[in-house]
């Protein structure tokens, strides 16, 4: 039997295209299990409970944190997000490749609790392109966009903390590189 796969963490600034890359990768390789995060934010149009996120109330999230049921969690733009620990560990034990798509704060927490995890930083082709992507979404208020840009500056500075950097110039290329790093292909 081959060795147990490592947990792979994909992180990078908001708007860099993490979810687009992951969605493409999972259409090509659906066997890669993507952890579904719990969040206190409201669903966006088209998002389904249990598919995109587990949408929970603040008191329920407090219980998850208090009981140590989250591998990592963070607060961003007034909402909290976290990764349910048990589901990740069960998939890894079963020998399945596991991918977490999380923010910098979460990636740092995973590094603390699971030092063997592989941390991959997804970088934008340029700062100007990142700004264009963040402002082009049209789903957030200007003050939220400004907070995201400020956070992106901090997140970009953390790139050296990661094991590998992939530059998102092509969704297909990055998805292929990510799969190779996860040893799925």
Automatic annotation (TrEMBL):
Its main location: cytoplasm. GO terms for molecular function: ATP binding; GMP kinase activity. CDD domains: GMPK. PROSITE patterns: GUANYLATE_KINASE_1 (PS00856), GUANYLATE_KINASE_2 (PS50052). ATP binds at residues 12-19. It is found in: Cytoplasm. It comes from Actinacidiphila glaucinigra. Keywords: ATP-binding, Cytoplasm, Kinase, Nucleotide-binding, Transferase. It is an enzyme of class 2 (transferase). This is Guanylate kinase. GO terms for cellular component: cytosol. It catalyses: GMP + ATP = GDP + ADP. Belongs to the guanylate kinase family.
């Amino acid at each position: 039997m081959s060795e147990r796969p490592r947990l792979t963490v994909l992180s990078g600034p908001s708007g860099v295209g993490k979810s687009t890359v992951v969605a493409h990768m999972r259409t090509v390789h659906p066997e890669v299990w993507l952890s579904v995060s719990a969040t206190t934010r409201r669903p966006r149009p088209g998002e389904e409970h249990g598919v995109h996120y587990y949408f929970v109330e603040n008191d329920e999230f407090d219980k998850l944190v208090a009981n140590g049921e989250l591998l990592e969690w963070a607060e961003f733009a007034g909402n909290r997000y976290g990764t349910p620990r048990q589901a990740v560990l069960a998939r890894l034990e079963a020998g399945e490749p596991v991918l977490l798509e999380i923010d910098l704060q979460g990636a740092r927490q995973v590094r603390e609790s699971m030092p063997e995890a592989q941390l991959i930083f997804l970088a934008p082709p340029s700062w100007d392109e990142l700004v264009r992507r963040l402002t082009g979404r049209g789903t957030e208020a200007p003050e939220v966009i400004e907070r995201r840009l400020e956070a992106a500056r901090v997140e970009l500075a953390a790139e050296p903390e990661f094991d590998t950097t992939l530059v998102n110039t092509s969704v297909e290329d990055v998805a292929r590189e990510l799969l190779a790093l996860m040893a799925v292909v």
